[in-house]
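Here is the promised in-class demo. Please do not try to memorize the tokens; focus on the logic of going from shape to residues.
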């Protein structure tokens, strides 16, 4: 993997977009201090995932964005893109199929970041993982700065091992281990929480089981309460419906009476309204008449006021006309004076105008003469300047021609040299084309051979894969079978445990017997109690019911050592009130007498004596045998009765449990008993134990088969992995060959294109040479012509210079005469203007005076007309006042007549309102009674509705009233109420009841089952994670040790070479723990004692660090190395050794180095110069060296 190019924009001092192109070999980046060279290394570190700003020589990450300069403002974003080429070495595994890829990182001043791989968004973690194991990862050896050299010498041994880890490619394994440990811890925490949860849920399930039982009893009582409450509610509903019917009948009677009274009252109210309406109209008419009366009075008042104003106006206008006549007389006098003054000024103005015209004419003549002279001088000056310009142009042309001739001579020399150089270059390329053609042939043959091998490997891999898939299917089927068998086994064990618990807890036994046996079980000394009679016998399957029927309660008897022990236990039961018990002393064998022997045992229907089907424990056989002697098993009860009737049969029993005792008492039927259940459970337990053993053996066989198939699968997977690796290697070789062939074809095409270009260039240069020669001859001829023209133009210039001086002198004399004449004209012009202004002023005054006279005359005429009109209006107003007074008298008479009519109507309305008031009281009384009835009906309806809703809300039942004949009597109601109270008291005593307990218990049981499965899954997951961690540790340890040994040997060799002798070594600080051990460096330069490496000189430290880092490159075959001024401490001799090492390393590694040393620069294939033309902004200058 090599860097193809770096693109920077806004990163540190690279404000402008900058592109650095790199090639194989050595590329040196040079420039003065502070120009921004090391910013390129920072850009690479930042782009491939650096998280710490201090490693980039910054305080915070925002400092990498260009912060501005004197000429350029700060930028808001920094961006760096690295372009990598696939050279087949240390290329990221997930990108091996591509030939190139790019990594981009952006940072905005707001703090937001963007990361991209091949222009697709990703995480910083993805970029970091991409470069793990390539040497470029964080803490890797691919980027070496001066600080890193010092760090390598002074670092702690554990810190140095990171370089070996990166070279060994185990950093990604360490990251996997870290992630796996986090997962393990999370799984462990989850498991602990799950166990706590299972414990809590189990406890809750036990509690809910008890609550569910209580809830069932509660529901039963509640149902009885519901039944009673519904019956009582139906009875109450019947009573309410009867009461409602009675009230509704009373309401109908009241409603009819109300309608009669309301009708009469309505008629009275209608008449009152009609009369009131007439009264209102009278009042409105009175109001209108009154309003009209006051309106006329107001008009009279206004007319009198107007009359007075008209009289005042007549007096005012008479005074105005008198004043205007006086003013007109004054204006006539002023007009005559103005005319006299105007005439005087007009006569004086004519004299000044005559003198002004004379001087003006003289000035025009002199101006004309001066203008002619000026034109002549200007024309001569233009001709003079023209000759100057022409002369300067000729001189400039001559200089230009001379320069062109010199340039042409140089071009001719340069062309000849260029043609020679191109011919040599062309010969060199032709030789290279021939070399590439031969190499191309070899590569194509190799590619074809690899393709054939690749097809063969693919076929073998497919065959192995098919076989593995078939085995995998077998494993899946086997795993399913194992799971079924495991489930079956766990079910059997669960059933066995349940049966054992029932047997050991003496379930179904009398309380006294149970108490004695539990006390005996807990007791340290066995105190002479041997156990139950039922536990001392073993019955043949199918005969348990016969034994139980025959012995009955005797099976619950307890076997004790002697009578004293029995008496002691009886006293214990009495003291503790623990029940009753029966005890059999084992030492006395003559306790029971046997029945008479069977006299006809061979008769049909007899199966045999019970003792044949019962096995008694040997030590108790003597004691218990009498219990079953004389009891015989028969086919059925009918056979038994037939046999009993004959002599010799004392006790008969069937397999179904029907029996006939010696007295002829017959017993039978169906009953579950303790003894039967206990013996049956014991038999079932034995069968389950045998079954579990058989299933376990089957499981072991399945486990073995599964293990064998897994081994076979692993072997096939290994084979597949080897074939896949071989397939990928061959595929990679073919891809590399394709790339090489493509590259060689491109190179040849490029070379052929280059030859065509060079041939065209030679022809072009030769044609150009001919044209240059012709140009040189032309320029010589032009130069000769220009020299003759130059002499001619110099003579013409001298003539025009003489003429210009003579005419300029005459012009100056005439200008002085013109100035004197201009002063006289200006003086007279000013005087003339003054007279004209005065004449204009007087004329304006005359016009204004005449205008004012005309205006006053108009005003006097208008005033006389207005005075006449005012007199006429005065007479008209006087007549109008007389008419208004007459109209007012008529209105007063009409007003008094309407007022009398209004008083009569008011009296009639009062009489009718009194009658209506008495009627309204009667209506109100009836209405009040109706409201009371309606309220009573509403209350009854509310009670009915409330009772129905109450029952519906409580029991979700819509009740109906009882039928009349089923109604309860008062006594029955009281009895039902008492019964209801009793049930409710019983419900209250039960306390709080969880009604959801039954459902919750079922859900909790299911959850408990699910959680147990989850627990099993988590335990499996923990086991897998622990195995994964162990595998990672084994892999990392193996890789680290292998790489360490190789680097160690290479370091020793390089040290001796760079120091020209001496000894050095790298050793593990703890050889017993290579996985965590640090790396110690031991160095002894030639001629020195072995000492601490920190005491060595700066140059020696640098050489030791270079030896170790280059060793890593040699072992890892790294394809990219970036060095930042690591040659600074080296002297000339060591620089020579260092540069020689660089040349060798460049054959397999792309080297990018930053240096100030000229000797280091000499070995570079390409130089990138960094300058700062503008303050604070870095600029790139590149040179390719041949």
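The designed amino acids, position by position:
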């Amino acid at each position: 993997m090599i860097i193809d190019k770096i693109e920077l924009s806004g990163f540190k001092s690279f404000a402008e977009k900058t592109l650095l192109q790199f090639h194989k070999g050595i590329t040196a980046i040079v420039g003065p201090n502070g120009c921004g060279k090391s910013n390129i290394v920072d850009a690479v570190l930042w782009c491939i995932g650096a998280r710490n700003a201090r490693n980039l020589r910054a305080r915070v990450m925002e400092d990498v964005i260009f912060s501005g300069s004197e000429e350029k403002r700060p930028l808001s974003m920094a961006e760096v893109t690295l372009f990598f080429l696939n050279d087949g070495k240390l290329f990221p595994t997930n990108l091996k199929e591509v030939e190139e890829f790019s990594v981009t990182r952006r940072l905005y001043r707001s703090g937001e970041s963007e990361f991209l791989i091949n222009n697709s968004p990703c995480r910083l973690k993805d970029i970091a993982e991409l470069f793990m194991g390539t040497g470029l990862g964080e803490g890797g050896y691919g980027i070496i700065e001066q600080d890193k050299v010092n760090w390598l010498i002074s670092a702690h041994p554990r810190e140095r091992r990171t370089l070996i880890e990166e070279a060994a490619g185990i950093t990604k394994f360490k990251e996997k281990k870290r992630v796996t440990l986090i997962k393990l811890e999370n799984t462990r925490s989850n498991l602990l929480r799950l166990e706590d949860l299972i414990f809590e849920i189990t406890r809750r399930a036990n509690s809910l089981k008890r609550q569910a039982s209580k809830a069932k009893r509660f529901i039963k009582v509640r149902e009885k309460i519901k039944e009673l409450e519904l019956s009582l509610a139906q009875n109450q509903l019947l009573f309410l419906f009867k009461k409602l019917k009675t009230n509704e009948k009373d309401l109908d009677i009241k409603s009819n009476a109300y309608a009669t009274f309301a009708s009469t009252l309505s008629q009275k109210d209608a008449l009152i309204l009609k009369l009131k309406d007439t009264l209102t109209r009278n009042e409105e008419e009175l109001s209108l008449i009154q309003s009209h009366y006051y309106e006329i009075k107001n008009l009279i008042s206004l007319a009198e006021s107007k009359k007075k104003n008209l009289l005042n106006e007549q007096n005012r206008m008479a005074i105005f006309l008198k004043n205007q006549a006086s003013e007109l007389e004054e204006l006539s006098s002023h007009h005559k004076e103005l005319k006299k003054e105007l005439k005087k000024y007009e006569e004086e103005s004519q004299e000044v105008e005559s003198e002004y015209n004379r001087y003006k004419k003289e000035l025009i003549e002199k101006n004309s003469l001066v203008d002619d002279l000026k034109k002549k001088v200007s024309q001569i000056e233009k001709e003079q300047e023209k000759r100057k310009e022409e002369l300067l142009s000729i001189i400039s042309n001559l200089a230009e021609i001379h320069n062109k001739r010199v340039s042409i001579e140089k071009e001719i020399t340069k062309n000849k040299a260029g043609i020679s150089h191109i011919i040599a270059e062309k010969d060199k390329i032709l030789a290279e084309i021939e070399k590439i053609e031969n190499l191309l042939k070899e590569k194509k043959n190799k590619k074809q051979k690899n393709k054939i091998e690749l097809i063969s490997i693919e076929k073998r891999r497919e065959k192995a894969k098919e076989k593995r898939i078939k085995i995998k299917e077998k494993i899946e089927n086997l795993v399913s079978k194992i799971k079924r068998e495991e489930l079956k086994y766990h079910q059997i064990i669960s059933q066995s445990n349940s049966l054992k618990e029932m047997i050991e807890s003496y379930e179904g036994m009398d309380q006294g017997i149970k108490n004695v046996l539990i006390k005996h079980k807990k007791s340290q000394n066995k105190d002479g109690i041997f156990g139950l009679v039922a536990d001392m016998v073993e019955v043949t399957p199918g005969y348990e019911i016969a034994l139980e029927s025959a012995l009955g309660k005797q099976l619950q008897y307890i076997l004790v050592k002697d009578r004293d022990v029995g008496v002691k236990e009886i006293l214990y039961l009495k003291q503790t009130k623990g029940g009753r018990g029966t005890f059999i002393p084992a030492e006395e064998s003559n306790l029971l007498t046997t029945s008479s022997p069977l006299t006809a045992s061979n008769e049909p229907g007899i199966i045999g004596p019970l003792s044949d089907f019962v096995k008694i424990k040997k030590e108790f056989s003597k004691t218990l045998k009498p219990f079953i002697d004389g009891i015989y098993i028969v086919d059925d009860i009918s056979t038994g009765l037939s046999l009993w009737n004959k002599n010799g049969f004392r006790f008969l029993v069937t397999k179904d449990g029907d029996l006939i005792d010696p007295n002829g008492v017959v017993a039978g039927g169906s009953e579950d008993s303790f003894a039967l259940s206990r013996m049956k459970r014991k038999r079932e337990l034995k069968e389950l134990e045998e079954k579990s053993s058989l299933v376990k053996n089957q499981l072991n066989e399945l486990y073995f088969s599964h293990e064998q198939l897994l081994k076979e699968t692993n072997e096939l997977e290994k084979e597949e992995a080897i074939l896949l690796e071989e397939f990928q290697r061959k595929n990679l070789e073919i891809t590399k060959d394709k790339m090489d062939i493509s590259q060689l074809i491109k190179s040849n095409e490029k070379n052929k294109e280059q030859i065509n270009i060079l041939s065209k260039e030679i022809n072009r240069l030769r044609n150009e040479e001919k044209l240059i020669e012709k140009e040189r001859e032309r320029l010589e001829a032009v130069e000769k012509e220009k020299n003759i023209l130059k002499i001619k133009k110099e003579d013409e210039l001298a003539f025009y210079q003489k003429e210009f001086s003579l005419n300029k002198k005459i012009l100056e004399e005439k200008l002085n005469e013109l100035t004197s004449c201009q002063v006289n004209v200006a003086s007279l012009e000013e005087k003339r203007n003054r007279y004209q202004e005065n004449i204009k002023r007087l004329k304006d005054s005359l016009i204004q005076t005449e205008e004012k006279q005309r205006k006053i005359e108009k005003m006097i005429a208008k005033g006389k007309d207005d005075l006449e009109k005012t007199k006429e209006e005065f007479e008209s107003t006087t007549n109008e006042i007389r008419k208004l007074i007459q109209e007012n008298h008529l209105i007063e008479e009409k007003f008094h007549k309407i007022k009398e009519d209004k008083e009569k109507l008011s009296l009639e309305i009062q009489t009718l309102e009194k009658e209506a008031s008495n009627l309204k009281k009667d209506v109100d009384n009836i209405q009040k009674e109706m409201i009371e009835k309606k309220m009573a009906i509403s209350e009854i309806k509310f009670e009915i509705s409330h009772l129905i809703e109450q029952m519906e809300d409580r029991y979700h039942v819509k009740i109906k009233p009882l039928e009349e004949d089923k109604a309860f009597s008062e006594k029955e109601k009281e009895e039902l109420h008492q019964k209801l109270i009793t049930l409710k008291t019983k419900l209250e005593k039960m306390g709080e009841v969880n009604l959801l307990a039954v459902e919750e218990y079922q859900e909790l049981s299911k959850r408990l089952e699910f959680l147990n499965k989850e627990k099993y899954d988590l335990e499996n997951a923990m086991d897998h994670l622990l195995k994964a961690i162990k595998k990672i540790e084994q892999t990392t340890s193996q890789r680290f040790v292998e790489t360490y040994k190789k680097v160690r040997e290479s370091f020793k060799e390089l040290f001796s070479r760079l120091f020209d002798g001496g000894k050095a070594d790298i050793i593990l600080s703890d050889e017993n723990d290579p996985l965590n051990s640090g790396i110690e460096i031991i160095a002894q330069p030639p001629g020195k004692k072995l000492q601490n490496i920190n005491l060595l000189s700066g140059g020696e430290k640098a050489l030791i660090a270079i030896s170790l880092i280059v060793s890593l490159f040699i072992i890892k075959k790294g394809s990219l190395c970036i060095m930042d001024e690591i040659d600074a401490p080296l002297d000339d001799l060591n620089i020579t050794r260092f540069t020689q090492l660089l040349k060798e390393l460049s054959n397999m590694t792309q080297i990018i180095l930053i240096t100030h040393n000229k000797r280091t620069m000499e070995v570079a294939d390409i130089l990138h110069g960094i300058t700062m033309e503008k303050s604070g902004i870095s600029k790139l200058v590149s040179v390719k060296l041949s």
